[in-house]
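call fold(seq) -> tokens
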Amino acid sequence: QRAHLDFPSSTTRLHVPFHAPFHVDMASTSAKHDAFVHEPMGDKPVDAIAGIGPVAKGKLEGLGYTNAYNLLGQFLVLDKDEEMFIGYMKDSVASNTKNAGDAYRCLKSWCDRNL
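ret:
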């Protein structure tokens, strides 16, 4: 089978084989996630973790989590358990499920790669 794309400003059609030689990852990660996972932890700020934006950063800093390694410590205390970590993020910093899940996956990926 062949797929085609019609471009409105042109009469040219682009034909692409249906079995294109590339993989589309439906569970792709953000650039922020990838940057965090593929670099040493060092003294990165807590908002270097995917899923941690300015609001969550402020709340986490108020709890003493200024660096990413501080939140990694909590992640490890919770035995890298997804349900417990997401619950902790929702309860302690009012993170929504998506952002808490992004933070979990980011820390989990970092641990899988570096520990």
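Confidence is low (pLDDT under 50) at residues 1-5, 14-26.
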